[in-house]
Amino acid sequence: MSKVAIAEIEVLAPNFKRRLSGVTATVVRLVPEQAQHIAIAATGPTLPAHVPQVSLGALLRMSRQGPGGRPRVWHARRNTEMLGGLALKYLLGKRLKLMFTSASQRSQTGLTRWLIRRMDAVVATSEATAQYLEVPAEVIMHGIDLDGFAPTPDRAALRRRLGLPDAILVGCYGRIRRQKGTDAFYGALAPLMQRRADVHAVVMGRAMAKDQELLTWLKRRTAEDGIADRFHFRPEVPVEKMADWYQVLDLYVAPQRWEGFGLTPIEAMACGVPVVATRVGAFEQIVTPQTGALVPPDDIEALGAAVAAALAPAGPLMDWRQAARPHVTAHFRIDREAEALIALYRRLLNAP
Prior knowledge:
The chain has 352 residues and is of the alpha/beta class. It contains 14 helices and twelve strands. The strands form two sheets. Strands 2-1-3-4-5-6 form a six-stranded parallel beta sheet, with helices on both faces.
């Protein structure tokens, strides 16, 4: 485990959730990159060993002042983490500058608005997100590690290793639930798969207890529609193994009905995989006509038509594939995101 001495840490990035989520993926991606340029560590109950981190207990024992007698920055991304920063600052007397990143594109609850007003700085992950905030926010869009997410030199070999067929593979990754549009993905793919025996679907993600009924329904429908052998359900994998599952795909589909930001299209395109997505979150800023297609959310017919057009013999798939990674390289590198956040950290560290 990459444990670091908290006495040397200037910036703390809490991750208070045990299960994999988009926020967790962001912390796991960003902190190692940022640690090359500033003394930052994550903290939380479950973090990969390669992420610089301090224990939750160390937060209680850390000195009131940060290195050089300056405050530390506490960079929260959830309500629980904003609450944790406030408790450390006002109940335990730790000298902290509090910062929050918002990815939500909906009206916040009264508690969230109250917490945000107590932050020293606020970041929005897109212009659309910033419009939902009642306080000024700096817009810093997410990026990804282009070394970790890249095309594979041998897709057929990787498919064999992962137990997938060497066919046309269309993927949909993330939590299995209605908000994420897993049922819409099925509704869009099933008619095409019944017409084309060469198309397979890969669904990866966790179904929480309240969503088990949806997962059961999906598996029942694949059997009823005669495509159960070509609809591959896979369990959630750690962040560091996700690139493999994009690299095997011919097309990635992001069918969300609602999304805060949405990293998966960027991750897919970095691996050279085109994307069909709904117009939610930051997808309209991520997916261009040169790299994929956009459809209205919850329009299953339009989603299915876009996927079918992409996979047609004379479709745009190969052109999209060639443009996908260069687009991400130009606009969504993780070092850009890291640099912008570090500049904000330094302003807070040097503030009175």
